[in-house]
Write a structure and sequence with these properties.
Strand content: 5-15%
Pfam family, one: Citrate_synt
Number of domains: 2
Structural class: mainly alpha
Protein name: Citrate synthase
Largest sheet: 3 strands, mixed
Low-confidence stretches: 60-139
Mean pLDDT: 81
Radius of gyration: 28 Å
Number of strands: 8
CATH superfamily of the largest domain: Citrate Synthase, domain 1
CATH architecture of the largest domain: Orthogonal Bundle
Helix content: 40-55%
Shape: globular
Family: Belongs to the citrate synthase family.
CATH topology of the largest domain: Citrate Synthase, domain 1
Distance between the termini: 64 Å
CATH class of the largest domain: Mainly Alpha
InterPro entries: 2-MeCitrate/Citrate_synth_II, Citrate_synth-like_lrg_a-sub, Citrate_synth-like_sm_a-sub, Citrate_synthase, Citrate_synthase_AS, Citrate_synthase_sf
Number of helices: 23
Keywords: Transferase, Tricarboxylic acid cycle
């Protein structure tokens, strides 16, 4: 069997001869020589592969880089940051006008270069038709007028921007996992503090570590006097998310990270995260009580009290918290929801936080960025919208009639569908069970069997009529509402939980940082001649 070098040289001679006969450009010949040279290398490293792919794509070529499992296993030993096994089979292919290149890297059983490097000629008509069909069936991707321009993936749909060891979302057979643990098990058996510890430090705590962690977080719920002054100045009409965003930014001016990025440590970043996820709940509740009743609420700093219990205590008893006993089921609801909302891969807010931290900015700025992104209605706030939708219906029949009318008018029914979970959100099962439990066990004291029945009827109707399933926000709405939590405070609880996930991603970004700076395909006017303002007219200004 010929060696990789021999087969590469043979393939190169064949391709160059064909290029000469067809009058191929020097650039095409150079690219093929570069490709074959890479194939001849005994074992390309992950960094080399990435450089090669970028080199090819920058010149208008389509590159599919398939890593065989043996290669992936080798990289697992040799390379610190490797591609997850589930991405080994991933192939990225884009049709271009003149040439399609597929580059497959073999490790143990490299075949001949002609097998490893498949170069197929495509006529302009065929390539253009393929590109048009691709764009027609994928409205999120568009190709620039110049067929040699790269494909644009609007909203970065289907784009893998980085690798992460924190969370899996929607992968076949894996559902939603935090660092390998199924979300259902974490929500059922763990307190939020355990989950936050897992996300920030990579493993679940022992009993002793859990107790020490709860005690360490408790004093972090305290509000600095300067922050209280700021919160009291915010208008009563402000959105609670804006209050949390402002509080996060304000704390960043009082409790700063080192200005020198080299002086920042993972432990220091984790402490900032712990302070923020502890204090942001206190901040929004302080503002809420002050604006609604003039009361200056005091957060609990009991070293034995969990974050969820302290939140319920401060919400329900802002002035006499010491003598108030939170309802265990309400505490369970808030605690589980913080876990369920804690992390979700590169959601818009998480990606925004990583973009900020990639510029070597501080943790407070990154979390402030994330809160601002979550503020948008296409990301956060859906659980509030669900409750506003369900609240008027006093019977399942009334709800079904109204929802059918919405569907007939092609109106959006909140709380259904997900870009990733096409067969149902795994978090929904947990939230639905909590909502059902509240409706049965707390009837007459906040529990609302009618609300649960309405929710269930809407769920069945949407599945039957639209084949759509609830996302996490749908039953979260009725769960929160039955606990007596004001609707405008639904999403702020989301913020408290997700801060742990945002921070975990920020720390991961710092560990192998590279500035996140994507490119855009320019579609503006061609180069124009500048006209001084004194010579500018309406006619020549448009040229």
């Amino acid at each position: 069997m010929e060696s990789a070098h021999e087969s590469a040289a043979e393939a190169l001679r064949l391709y160059e001869a064909r290029d000469a006969a067809r009058g191929a450009t020097a650039d095409a010949t150079s690219m093929r020589r570069h490709a074959v040279a890479r194939l001849a290398a005994p074992l390309p490293k992950a960094k080399e592969i990435d450089q090669f792919v970028r080199h090819m794509e920058a010149r208008g070529y389509s590159v599919a880089c398939r890593l065989h499992q043996g290669f992936a296993e080798k990289l697992n030993k040799d390379v610190k940051h490797v591609r997850p096994k589930e991405r080994v089979r991933q192939t990225h292919e884009v049709t271009v006008a003149r040439l399609k290149i597929k580059c497959a890297f073999r490790v143990k059983h490299m075949k001949t270069a002609s097998d490893a490097l498949q170069i197929k000629e495509a006529t302009p008509h065929t390539a253009a038709a393929a590109a048009a069909a691709h764009n027609k069936h994928n409205s999120t991707s568009t190709t620039a007028p110049d067929n040699h321009q790269p494909t644009v993936h609007r909203g970065l749909v289907g784009v893998y921007a980085d690798e992460s060891a924190i969370c899996t979302v929607g992968l076949s057979g894996m559902g939603l996992n935090y660092r390998g643990y199924a979300i259902e098990e974490l929500a059922e058996h763990c307190e939020f503090e355990e989950v936050a510890y897992l996300l920030l430090y990579g493993r679940l705590p022992t009993r002793r570590e859990r107790d020490e962690y709860v005690a360490r977080l408790a004093p972090m719920r305290a509000l600095p006097p300067a922050l209280c002054t700021i919160l009291e100045q915010l208008p009563a009409t402000a959105h609670p998310m804006d209050v949390q965003r402002t509080a996060c930014s304000a704390i960043g001016t009082m409790e700063t990270e080192p200005e020198d990025p080299k002086a920042r440590t993972p432990e220091g970043g984790a402490r900032v995260a712990e302070r923020l996820m502890s204090v942001l709940g206190s901040a929004v509740l302080y503002w809420y009580h002050f604006k609604t009743s003039g009361v200056r609420a005091v957060p609990s700093v009991d070293p034995n009290e969990t974050m969820a219990s302290a939140f319920v205590r401060m919400l329900k008893a802002p002035t006499n918290g010491a003598s108030f006993t939170p309802d265990p089921l309400h505490v369970r609801t808030v605690d589980a929801s913080m876990t369920l909302y804690a992390e979700h891969d590169l959601a818009a807010s998480t990606f925004a936080a990583r973009v900020t931290i990639s510029s070597l900015s501080d943790m407070h700025s990154a979390i402030t960025t994330a809160i601002g992104t979550l503020r948008g209605p296409l990301h956060g706030g859906a659980n509030e919208a669900v409750m506003h939708m369900l609240k008027p219906y006093r019977s399942p029949d009334a709800a079904e009639s109204a929802i059918r009318e919405m569907l007939a008018k092609k109106q959006l029914v909140m709380g259904f569908g997900h870009r990733i979970y096409k067969g149902g959100d795994p978090r929904n099962k947990v939230f639905k069970g909590i909502s059902r439990m509240l409706s049965m066990e707390r009837e007459g004291s906040g529990g609302d069997p009618t609300l649960y029945a309405v929710s269930e009827r809407v769920e069945k109707l949407m599945e039957t009529e639209k084949n759509m399933f609830p996302n996490a926000d749908f039953y979260a709405a009725s769960s929160y509402y039955q606990c007596g939590i004001p609707i405008e405070l639904f999403t702020p609880i989301f913020v408290v939980g997700r801060t742990s996930g945002w921070a975990a991603h920020c720390l991961e970004q710092r560990s192998a940082n590279r500035l996140i700076r994507p490119s855009a395909v320019y579609t503006g006017p061609p180069p124009r001649t500048f006209v001084p303002i004194n010579e500018r007219t309406e006619e020549n200004a448009k040229l």
